[in-house]
Write a structure and sequence with these properties.
Layout: E1 8-12, H1 17-34, E2 40-44, H2 50-63, H3 69-76, E3 79-83, H4 89-99, E4 105-109, H5 116-125, E5 133-137, H6 144-155, E6 163-166, H7 173-183, E7 197-205, H8 214-218, H9 221-239, H10 249-260, E8 270-275, E9 293-299, E10 309-315, E11 322-329, E12 346-352, E13 354-364, E14 372-383, H11 389-399, H12 408-423, E15 429-431, H13 440-445
Parallel strand pairs: 1-2, 1-4, 2-3, 4-5, 5-6, 7-10, 8-15
Antiparallel strand pairs: 7-11, 8-9, 9-10, 11-12, 12-13, 13-14
Helix pairs in contact: 1-2, 1-3, 1-11, 6-12, 9-10, 9-12, 10-12
């Protein structure tokens, strides 16, 4: 891959739902806010022409923030469209024409993984892979073997440094803020180990169900949809060693090392749940065994983290929509003021829908007696970033900055952690919508609990 900024953007699946909801708004942001001024070529098989494609872009932008006529005119002047079958070599000859003299295109595959091989091979045969970058959308396989097979397909025509695996969660400002807060403030480093940390909890809760995504969700489930990727990445940001060096790989090297040290799941360390009513959702199979809630207990086999339990849960139809991580500190080794020692101290890092860093302490209650009460000191609180994750990530990919993207060994390490459960999952337990999941999740956390339930945003 030659150095330099990509000089064209090609996105396959240009008429799809992801393009409508995420890609058009992200591309508009790149053009208006970051000065991107390169051909933007949509490719799909929809029987469309350029006018229909432009109309789709306008409709997308009208529904996702809006755009004034002058700015839309600037954006639409960059748009090109190629309509054709991905199995037809002629489609890629038309794409070559649409790209004009572009020498370093960025190809974004917003298409099902089953089509990756077809498109990658066709790009190579048409001479469109040389000096190009390739962005692929998750899921990166359905298990460890299929992920490895997918990587072999991608690597057959693109080197690893030219492949950018998008996990939009990594583009979120508050996820990046976790690592920044840790490593920009030396006050936390002496505490960030097994001597002071009692346990770690990560929760990603949604108060809604699968809605109109029944067929998709029923082929995926909570474990594959968010835990194997998003939440393990949060874990990596929270627990990795400080990056060494300044290149793009420094951070990913440490994330890979951490994830490779996580012990694979077994049946005793997971609870799967399904909310009552899920099987009535259109697109969901009768008697579906798919989980809409998952809670796991993980262990990191490293010197720093040996013996510190990590609890992660994610689910739909829970009481709130919020995501946060909580680092719980040990209680004092003995009571000083006659009170029972308790593990009050914590650090809470809110990821969504708002961003917050807070420190939990115990302070003296006013009065003569030496009795304490828990308080939480909010260190920083702000709205979520105005820069959408897809805009940030596509901009990084155009610059060749892979830090916020999945790497082959990181993806493999994530699948390694969940693979035993994918092969032999325990049965789902039903839970009532509006509750915090099956009762077994409380038994899983046991004496390390209770779970810290995130509050809804104000």
């Amino acid at each position: 891959m030659s150095d330099g900024h990509s000089d064209a953007i090609v996105f396959f699946g240009a008429t799809g739902d992801l393009a409508y909801k995420q890609i058009f708004p992200a591309l508009l942001g790149l053009v208006l806010e970051e000065g991107v001024n390169v051909p933007i070529v949509g490719v799909a098989k929809a029987g469309w022409g350029i006018d229909a494609f432009r109309a789709r872009a306008k409709d997308s932008l009208d529904h996702h923030g809006g755009v004034d006529p002058a700015n839309f005119a600037k954006f639409v002047s960059l748009l090109r469209y190629v309509d054709g079958d991905y199995n037809d070599p002629q489609t890629f000859e038309l794409l070559k024409q649409a790209l004009g003299g572009a020498k370093r295109p960025l190809h974004y595959l917003a298409i099902p993984p089953s089509l990756f091989g077809v498109v990658v091979s066709a790009l190579a045969k048409a001479g469109l892979s040389e000096n190009a970058r390739l962005v692929v959308e998750k899921p990166f396989g359905r298990d460890r073997d299929s992920a490895a097979a997918l990587n072999r397909i991608l690597l057959s025509d693109f080197p690893e440094e030219s492949i950018f695996r998008i996990d939009h969660y990594l583009g979120k400002e508050p996820v990046q803020n976790i690592a920044y807060t840790r490593f920009a403030n030396t006050i936390f480093e002496p505490l960030w180990n097994r001597q002071y940390v009692r346990s770690i909890q990560i929760t990603m809760a949604e108060s809604f169900g699968v809605q109109d995504r029944g067929a998709f969700y029923d082929s995926t489930g909570a474990l594959r949809d968010v835990l194997q990727n998003h939440l393990l990445q949060v874990l990596a940001n929270l627990m990795m060693e400080p990056p060494t060096g300044e290149d793009h790989e420094a951070s990913r090297d440490q994330k890979a090392a951490l994830l490779k040290a996580v012990r694979p799941l077994d049946a005793r360390s997971i609870v799967r749940g399904q909310y009552r009513g899920y099987q009535a959702v259109p697109g969901v199979r009768p008697n579906s065994p798919v989980e809409t809630f998952v809670a796991v207990k993980l262990t990191v086999d490293s010197w720093r983290w040996a013996g510190v339990p990590i609890y992660i849960r994610a689910g739909k139809c829970l009481p709130a929509t919020a995501a946060e991580a909580v680092v719980q500190f040990h209680a004092p080794p003995r009571p000083v003021f006659g009170e029972e020692a308790s593990s009050i101290g914590h650090m809470r890092l809110r990821i969504s829908p708002d961003v917050c860093v807070a420190l939990g302490l115990k302070v003296k209650r006013p009065g003569e007696k030496m009795i304490g009460e828990p308080v939480e000191l909010t260190l920083n609180e702000q709205a979520e970033s105005l820069t959408p994750p897809y805009q940030r990530l596509l901009g990084d990919a155009m610059r060749g900055d892979g830090e916020l993207f999945g790497r082959e060994d990181i993806v493999d390490a994530q699948w390694r952690i969940v693979q035993p459960i994918l092969a032999n999952p325990p049965a789902c337990e039903e839970y009532e919508p509006g509750t915090w999941g099956p009762e077994a999740a409380e038994a899983l956390i046991g004496s390390d609990g209770p779970w810290r339930n995130p509050e809804p945003s104000a």
